[in-house]
Specification:
190 residues; single chain; mainly alpha; 7% strand; 2 strands; two-stranded antiparallel ribbon
Length: 190
């Protein structure tokens, strides 16, 4: 029995009433393992010292940067061309973000990649791995980049807090509709 047949049989046993792209997930897992092995090989080849433990400051910085970069890549309207081959636009989801649906046609690898590229929680593993590897290989540049992403994340929260405070101070206003022109309303000019 071929590997493809085994995966198809496993998929049917795993989720008989729903399509789950297990083959695509295996490809994604293999790619992740390859990226991690590649980072490890570069660190060893360059004989870059690996710290015993990252500092608390670096952990916080990378956590916030991972959050922001993951959301930017998976939800931001501007980055939608990167996701378009794997997802389709559904609707805006507020504050410059969009909701997208994974394309079901095509290969299971395409479907799995669509899920990865539209899920900030899923992509965060990859982003954190990349940032952590970068922190070992190029700490100054990584900290600078992570600082910028952290500043953007803080700005996002401040924008939302400001909008909330502004709405609380002025009270909720019903949406206004423009008044029809006098001629259109039948009143005419006096």
């Amino acid at each position: 029995m071929s590997v493809r047949d085994r995966v198809a049989r496993l998929r049917r046993a795993y989720a008989p009433h729903e399509h789950r792209p297990l083959g695509g997930y295996l490809v994604a897992l293999g790619a992740y393992a390859g990226v991690t092995a590649g980072l490890t090989a570069v660190v060893r080849a360059t004989r870059t010292p690996v710290p015993d433990a990252p500092s608390t400051k670096d952990i916080v910085l990378l956590a916030i940067a991972t959050h922001k970069l993951s959301r930017l890549l998976t939800k931001d309207a501007i980055t939608s061309p990167l996701r378009a081959p794997f997802t389709s636009y559904d609707r805006p989801s507020g504050h410059g973000e969009v909701m997208e649906q994974v394309r079901d046609q095509g290969s299971s690898a395409r479907h799995a990649l669509g899920e990865l590229l539209s899920c900030p929680f899923c992509l965060a593993v990859w982003v954190a791995t990349g940032l952590t590897g970068s922190l070992v290989l190029a700490p100054r540049l990584t900290r600078l980049t992570a600082t910028a992403l952290t500043a953007i994340a803080a700005s996002d929260f401040l924008q939302l807090a400001y909008a909330t405070a502004q709405q609380a101070a002025t009270g909720p206003h019903p949406p206004t509709t423009p008044s029809p022109p006098a001629a259109a309303s039948g009143l005419g000019e006096v």
